[in-house]
What we know:
By secondary structure, this protein is α+β, with helices and mostly antiparallel strands. It is about 30% helix and about 35% strand. It has 4 helices and 7 strands. The chain has helices spanning about 10-20, 30-40, 80-95, 110-120, and strands at about 1-5, 45-50, 50-60, 65-75, 100-105, 125-130, 140-145. About 25% of the residues are buried. Bound molecules: coenzyme A (COA). The site of coenzyme A (COA) has 20 residues, from strand 4, helix 3 and helix 4.
Amino acid sequence: MYIVREVRSEDLFSVFKIAYETLPEPYNPGLFNIFYEEFPSGFLVAEMHGRVVGFIVGVKTDLYVAKILMLSVSKEYRRCGIGSALINRFIKEMRLQHIRQIDLEVRSNNYAAIDFYKKHDFDVIDFIPGFYKDGQDAYVMRKIL
Ligand SMILES: CC(C)(COP(=O)(O)OP(=O)(O)OC[C@H]1O[C@@H](n2cnc3c(N)ncnc32)[C@H](O)[C@@H]1OP(=O)(O)O)[C@@H](O)C(=O)NCCC(=O)NCCS
């Protein structure tokens, strides 16, 4: 079984490793420290048998608005509900912070993630051509809490 909890400083290397292995954007490792220090309640990990197997990073972008910047589960642990557990806990934390709207961007060809977010009642509200550095388009998705 896994648990979802707030990130700790000793998790940051594992989180960076998952991001490096599973996300197409190259992230600077220092970024994870900044998220950890600036908005720890938006940075959660899933731990299984003492090992970090997934994480979510979100930030507050306005008084009542948050944005999910990254969400990933290690490949071998997908489709077991871990992504859902992470996003549900994130939503719960955001409600406690009086957040009323959660936004995110997702690659327009990332069908797994789009289906995942739709299942969690996010709606596509916009399309941004060439949003990513490699020229890929993005959908903007939003959930009103
Ligand atoms: C998106 C992601 C986080 C989902 O994590 P997960 O732990 O596999 O998700 P869950 O097991 O909680 O899935 C919940 C539901 O989402 C949908 N879903 C998840 N993966 C899917 C896939 N590959 N294809 C279609 N639907 C999918 C399904 O409805 C699923 O329910 P089901 O398994 O009962 O059918 C995971 O695929 C991932 O890490 N992808 C790579 C990183 C990424 O794209 N992140 C999002 C962009 S920032």
